Amino acid sequence: MVKSLRKWWPLFVLPTALSFVFGFVIPFAEGAYLSFCQFISISNPTFVGLSNYAAALSDPQFAHAFWLTALFTVTVTVLVNVIALAIALAFTRSRLWGTNAFRTVFFMPNLIGGIVLGYIWQILINCVLANVGQQLLALNTHAGFWGLVVLTLWQQIGYMMIIYIAGLQSIPSDYLEAAKVDGANAWQTLWKVKIPNLMPTITICLFLTITNGFKLFDQNLALTGGEPSHSSELLALNIYSTFYSRAGAKWMGIGQAKAVIFCLLVIAISLVQLRLTKSKEVQQ
Amino acid sequence: MKANDISRRGFIGMGATGLLGLALAGCGKSGDAGSASSGSGDAKKGSVYYLNFKPEADEQWQALAKAYTEETGIPVSVVTAASDTYEEKLQSEMSKSSAPTLFQVNGPVGLQNWKDYCIDLSGSQVYGELSNPALALKADGKVYGIDYVEEDYGIIYNKELLQKAGYSEADITSFASLKKIADDIQARRDELGVKGAFTSAGMDSSSNWRYTTHLANMPIYYELKADGEEDTDAIKGTYLPNYKDIFDLYITDSTVDPAQLASKTGDDAVNEFVNGEAVFYQNGTWSYKDVKSLGDDKLGMLPLYIGAAGEEKQGMCSGGENYWCVNSQASADDQQATLDFLYWVVTSDKGTTALADGMGFTCPFNSAKETANPFAKIAKKAVEDGKEPVTWAFVHIPSEEWKKGLSSALTAYAAGTAGWDGVQAAFVDGWAKEKAATA
């Protein structure tokens, strides 16, 4: 078995490897090249060197979007993971009535597309704001930011909850019994037994929430569209508007340069996070 | 424990559904590509691929394409971009090997992007069919685009309600008289059974273009006209006080509280107008299909008065922002096939009927049929009566970014969170900034 695997592995890897190369590596390389060019359609770009990067980095709107995205990602990452873990603990610990139904309910928002969610929440939040006499989303930077946070929580908690439940269920029950026999209370069991054993799951969930936070686009576009005056515009939306809100080959190149910077940033942050949390993982 | 186990079968089921979805999506895509590229099957005759801008006219274009293929055997495929995504769609389609042979630009600003992709149409038959060659999109002595639909806008009103209030169209000849009547209707709105004189001036993206583009045309038009200029890199905002006057009128004599305008949509305004909750509604010929349920005899249109000098002679705002361009990167056969197709569309009985009746367009071609659209008729009558149509100066607006900035500022002004200074800055400083950014 092992021998034949050793012989035939390229054949098994081939389909995935090919789709990875065609679907990711080649477009990515082409995209990176285009960030040094001016272009309208990608079939005939003109090389312009580093000027796109200079323009991207000197754009105050891009810097604002970056800091806002960082703030947003931190907020969302903390809240999503804390709440998702809490719900997962509740659903695995006791035999609550209707546990499965609740799990389904929590997971459902994840199945709805971001644009649809954005518009639904826009109507909801605007209704609430109008009733409490506050300015509507299009005029209200704070409401825009917290609206996005609430929307993202609503969408992602269910998904992370499922991963946490799976993680919690894979903790050997001997550990939990041993803790019980030793007289550990629930709090101690959580911190000394469950969380250390959950570290691989936490790594995954943190990775997903951080990258999702940085990449958030459709929800942002539909909920606030960056209003008022770009102040609720996250990075991905900033790139999009750089691309499409002005005519001319110049802006495509600048948008592309922003996209490459964005990509490198997300990769760097995820790598650091993976390294940090991986070092905390324990062997079962 | 069992109850708490995540059902593995459930997960597998979900995964399988997902895969199936992907597979179906894949099929759909390849199906599309097949139909689009099937055009290039017969290389000798060439083929036509039209990337259509107007979603409301998609059905008619599909029918026209089919009819033309039946008549001539030349394959024509029409793809329509979803509303508001034309530029994105065009960019991605143009990068393909089977790129559109026929596409649209919206005027001089849009042409900036696509000039290198347009052939010179000056010698083409379809250019010869233009009833007014001035309507072609020209640059550097070449004809890059052909305007195929003339549209008009102004203030649409409900004749019945205006009469009920004791007025007629003849009473409104200037901004002052419009304001007087609107104020009166607003004051007596309960008695008249309306919610306001004007429909809500929604600042949602489905509606804000009525103010950031169409209404903004007025101060731009009058300033360029006064200065005798075609376009400018630095707009002064001479007529901004007039722009403020009419916008104030829209938001005060309105169906809703100005603070709510930020979330009001285009559909909201249509519904208010169709349900007889408002008398006036700023829009154009293209909105006929939305409001025709009121009945043609109740629909009227007034010029968009802003109080500029000499406005008693002002007609409707007439122009076009739909220019046909033929892809210069396409093969010579495909280019010829495209030109032949266009010529057929603007001269044949089927083509002209579809343009006039099906799509409701007033087309600037010699053999164009007259459309049944009452707003187009009103605009035509105004010209016959010696009124001077207002041209679409908004085609010189430097960028979408300028409109966005103006929209944010108008929204804040309407809600009272910022003063008119913001609008002034977005209009004047934004113009200079965006002209420089897109130079």
Question: Could you describe the 3D structure shown?
Answer:
The complex is a heterodimer of chains A (284) and B (439). Chain A has 284 residues and is mainly α. Chain A has a single domain (51-278), classed as MetI-like (MetI-like fold), CATH 1.10.3720. Chain A is built from eleven helices and two strands. Chain A has a two-stranded antiparallel sheet. In chain A, strand 1 (37-38) and strand 2 form a beta hairpin. The two termini of chain A are 27 Å apart. The relative contact order of chain A is 0.14. The mean pLDDT of chain A is 89. Chain B has helices at residues 8-37, 58-72, 86-94, 108-114, 125-128, 159-164, 175-187, 189-192, 209-215, 217-227, 240-252, 266-274, 288-291, 332-347, 349-358, 374-384, 400-415, 420-437, and strands spanning 48-52, 76-80, 102-105, 136-139, 142-147, 151-158, 196-198, 278-284, 299-302, 314-319, 323-326, 388-390. The longest helix of chain B has 30 residues, at 8-37. The relative contact order of chain B is 0.15. Chain B has two domains: 38-150 and 320-366, D-Maltodextrin-Binding Protein, domain 2, CATH 3.40.190; 153-318 and 383-437, D-Maltodextrin-Binding Protein, domain 2 (3-Layer(aba) Sandwich). Chain B is α/β, with parallel strands linked by helices. In chain B, helix 2 packs antiparallel against helix 15. Chain B has 18 helices and twelve strands. The radius of gyration of chain B is 24 Å and the shape is globular. Chain A binds chain B through residues 40-43, 91-92, 95, 99-100, 122-123, 126, 130, 135-139, 162, 165-166, 169, 225, 227-229, 241, 244-249, 251-252, and chain B through 3-6, 87-88, 91, 94-95, 99, 109-110, 112-114, 116-117, 203-205, 259-260, 262-263, 329, 398-401, 404-405, 408-409, 411-412, 415, 417, 434, 437-438.
